[in-house]
Amino acid sequence: MLIDDLINEIKEYAEENNVPIMADDGIRYLLNYINKHNVRNILEIGTAIGYSAIMMCMVHPEIQVTTIERDEKRYLEALKNIKKANLENRIHLIYNDALEVRLDEMYDLIFIDAAKAQNQRFFERFERNLFDDGTIITDNMKFHGLVEKNIDEIESKNLRQLVRKVKDYIMYLKGNAYYETEFVDVGDGLAVSKKNFI
C-alpha cells in the first residue's frame, strides 16, 4: 500500500471513529521541527492509531519512535497501521499506561499527546529521558479554543476540570526555569519546551 493512501485511510478512520489526531498545520509544524533540528530518537506519549508516529518516521529514514498507548482498541489499530507502513522495526509500540512505564533510553524529542489532565505528570516522568539539547512538545494547548474562554462559561463540570488542568500546565511551563517554552499557534496549539542551560 502506498504511504499516501495509508495516511488518507488513517485520517478517514480517525474521523469516522472519533479518534483525535493532530490537525494538518500542527503535524506540518512538528515534522518541520524534526527535520530542522535533525531529530532522530523520539518518544511519543499517546499513540492513538499511529498517525503521528508514522508521519514522524517519514521525515528521515534514521528516525526511531517509541510510542505508548493505553487504549487496547487504538493500540491494535496502531499496530495494524504500523505494519501496513512497513515500520515495525522503526516504531516501537508499548501497550501500557505511560505513567506505569519506565524507560532508560534517551531521546532528542518527547511528544506529549495523551490524557490532557496528566500533561505535567508525563512531562515530569519522562524529562529525565531527554538529551540536554532536547525538546518536549505538547499538543492541544488551546484545547479546541476552550482555554481562551472563561471557565465558568463551560457547562460540563468534567470539561471545566480538564480545561483548568490545561491552564495549570501552561502556568507550570511558563514558570519552569529549566525550560524555555514557546507557545505556537498552529493546529490546536503547541507548547515547545527546550532545555535551558542555567
The gist of it:
With 198 residues, the protein is an alpha/beta fold. The protein is built from 6 helices and 7 strands, in the order ααβαβαββαβαββ.
Task: Furnish the topology, listing elements before pairings.
Blueprint: H1 3-16, H2 24-36, E1 41-45, H3 51-57, E2 64-69, H4 72-84, E3 91-95, E4 107-112, H5 119-126, E5 130-138, H6 157-175, E6 179-184, E7 190-195
Parallel strand pairs: 1-2, 1-4, 2-3, 4-5
Antiparallel strand pairs: 5-7, 6-7
The shape is globular
Strand order across the biggest sheet?
Answer: 3-2-1-4-5-7-6
The succession of helices and strands, N to C, reads: HHEHEHEEHEHEE
Number-wise, the strands total 7
Q: Indicate the percent of residues in helices.
A: 25-40%
CATH architecture: 3-Layer(aba) Sandwich
What structural category characterises the helix and strand content?
alpha/beta
CATH class label: Alpha Beta
Assembly status: single chain
Any idea what the CATH superfamily is called?
Answer: Vaccinia Virus protein VP39
The largest sheet is: 7 strands, mixed
Please, how many domains? Answer: 1
Number of helices: 6
Low-confidence stretches: none
Rg over CA atoms, rounded to whole Å, is 16 Å
**How many angstroms does the end-to-end distance come to?**
49 Å
Mean pLDDT: 92
**Which fold does the CATH topology refer to?**
Rossmann fold
Give the DSSP E fraction (strand runs of 2 or more residues): 15-25%
